[in-house]
Amino acid sequence: MKIYRTTDYQEMSRTAAMILAAQIHLKPDCVLGLATGSTPIGTYEELVRQYQAGHLDFSQVKSANLDEYRGLTRDNDQSYYYFMQENLFRHVNIDPANTFIPDGSQPDPDAECSRYEAVLAQLGGVDLQILGLGHNGHIGFNEPADAFAKATHCVDLTRSTIEANRRFFEKEEDVPRQAYTMGVGTIMRAKKILLLVSGEGKAAILREAVAGPVTPRVPASILQFHPDVTVIADEAALAQLDA
Ligand code: GLP
């Protein structure tokens, strides 16, 4: 695991965008694993800037998102589908047919999760996966559990995640209680992983994830076993580690 220390959120975002841009230059038809949440927004903004300046071409890029709320339709402004359109896809020349996200409007979890695993298999695997870190150590929506989930599945969101994501919704009752997410096993199959972490609120969980025991109680801790993980974190997030 490589830990890259940045001074602040902006530098974390620029660094992550540089690595993503390098991936696209090296393999123009790469498969990017994309994340939502507030953490990668600055990275996406930087990618859009580079595209607008004529330095990046997404025409052959394919993308697969980590997760989606179960029960939200694509036009819901809190769906991850909507998030991706707003923060990246509609600003660059990625082909919408090459972008994949679990479909939260599909009511049958087993059918939707197997469909999504089949999509990922057909893409031939993720070249570069971006991850944020939940306050409870979740990656995608893999919440703390007794075992690591192997494949895309439907998850009951924990109280702490519902509370953390409450800020995006009008009322607490509006926060979906379930989500479809790539499993930890799915995530671990990515060739390269970038874990982005910012802010003092994540310092304790980042220490547990990168230096604590590997346990499904801290889902991100499994990343210690992946052969190619780069953590890009700002000083505030790294405050409890002497990296
Ligand atoms: C969300 C997403 C995760 C994200 C995490 C952290 O619920 N499902 O993919 O990494 O929580 O979010 P944030 O970056 O806003 O702290």
Report on this structure:
This protein is of the alpha/beta class and 243 residues long. The chain has one domain (2-180, 192-234): Rossmann fold, CATH 3.40.50. It contains seven helices and ten strands. A seven-stranded parallel β-sheet has the order 1-10-9-6-2-3-5, with helices on both faces. The longest helix is centred in the first third of the chain and has 18 residues, at 9-26. 2-amino-2-deoxy-6-O-phosphono-alpha-D-glucopyranose is lined by residues 35-39, 66-67, 132-134, 140-141, 161, 165.
Ligands bound to this protein structure: 2-amino-2-deoxy-6-O-phosphono-alpha-D-glucopyranose
Contiguous uncertain segments of 5+ residues:
none
Structural class: alpha/beta
How many structural units, i.e. domains?
A: 1
The H/E string reads: EHEHEEHEHEEHEHEHE
Write out the strand line-up for the largest beta sheet, numbering strands in chain order: 1-10-9-6-2-3-5
Amino-to-carboxy terminus distance: 11 Å
**Shape verdict:** globular
Please write the CATH class name: Alpha Beta
Q: Tell me the radius of gyration.
A: 17 Å
What's the main sheet like? Answer: 7 strands, parallel
Average pLDDT works out at: 97
Strand share of the residues? Answer: 15-25%
Q: What is the strand tally?
A: 10
CATH third-level topology: Rossmann fold
Oligomer classification: single chain
**Count of discrete alpha- or pi-helical segments spanning 4 or more residues:** 7
CATH architecture designation: 3-Layer(aba) Sandwich
